[in-house]
Amino acid sequence: MELRSAALKVLCDAQPHTQVQAVQALWGERDRLTLETTAVMQAPGVPLPGRPARPELKPPQQVPSRSVHTPQGLAGLVHSVCHIEFNAIHLALDAIWRFAGLPEAYYRDWLKVAYEESTHFELLCGLLRDMGYGYGDFAAHDGLWQMCEKTADDVIARMALVPRTLEARGLDATPLIQAKLQLSDSPHALALQPILEIILRDEIGHVAIGNHWFRWLCAEEGLDPLLHYPTLVQRHAAPRLKPPFNNEARLQAGFTQEEIDWLLAQRL
Q1: How far apart are CA 167 and CA 161, in angstroms?
Q2: How is residue 44 annotated by DSSP?
Q3: At residue 101, what are phi and psi to the nearest 5 degrees?
Q4: Residue 57 pairs with which residues in a beta bridge?
Q5: Cβ(176)–Cβ(221) below 8 Å
Q6: What is the pTM (predicted TM-score) of this model?
Q7: CB distance 10 to 27 below 8 Å
């Protein structure tokens, strides 16, 4: 089985749980997968990614905000994180099939990301079931995939603006969510905490992969990563990141202090 064509096939699957199973099967076969790094693959004649009929997708400002101190509000939070992890599977699969001519390690890195995101999705779906809900029961937004589409023709922009911008927001947001959950004595809030710890640990690694390949690609093109990043933010209308930033996690994920200082300077 060839990895990049298999990743595209999985990305077209509209059923979350069969998609997750397929990603995990690919990971299990990773040492036996072949890899066509130079093949330029054509997008299929169906919308990407494959999606279930639910959740209903709305603009971010129209997705209701709920208190984590009510059962429904806490379930809404779990669903929101679950939706992010489901989209993160798509982002990793798309990074594998779409961009040709990169080192084998690039494709295998993103397969690892897809696999770990699939395990996060399963953990969160299990918690949702315990709460009496399922994936799709709450409205969600499509911001992560929209940036994926904006950067479909530029792998440097993809690495800059998806893993190290949008996904890196999770490094900053997770401690804030954990602090709110500590004020709750709900058993489901307590059950969410270790899942968030796993996600934060793995996401540091995922953002590090994005940082590595962004810098590698910039070096290949003779670009200064620090100077090129703001150009890409402006070109693709990427969201401006807001503090507080999780400096410790960002440094572990490969950001430099200079890059963190630049983010802080944007808020002055």
Answers
A1: 9
A2: P
A3: 80, 20
A4: 140
A5: no
A6: 0.96
A7: no
Summarize pLDDT for 127-164 with one digit per residue, the tens. 999 999 999 999 998 888 999 999 999 999 999 999 99
φ, ψ for residue 106, nearest 5 deg: -60, -50
**What does the alpha-carbon distance between residue 175 and residue 197 come to, in Å, rounded to a whole number?**
9
Prior bond to 55 cis, omega within 30?
Answer: yes
CB 181 within 8 A of CB 189: yes
**Per the structure, how many domains does the chain have?**
1
| CATH number (domain holding residue 209) | 1.20.1260
Other beta carbons within 10 Å of 74: 22
pLDDT bracket for residue 69 (50, 70, 90): confident
Under 8 Å between Cβ of 173 and 118: no
Rounded Cα distance between 8 and 93, Å, is 7
Residue 10 belongs to what domain range? 3-265
Q: How far is CA 190 from the centre of its chain?
A: 24
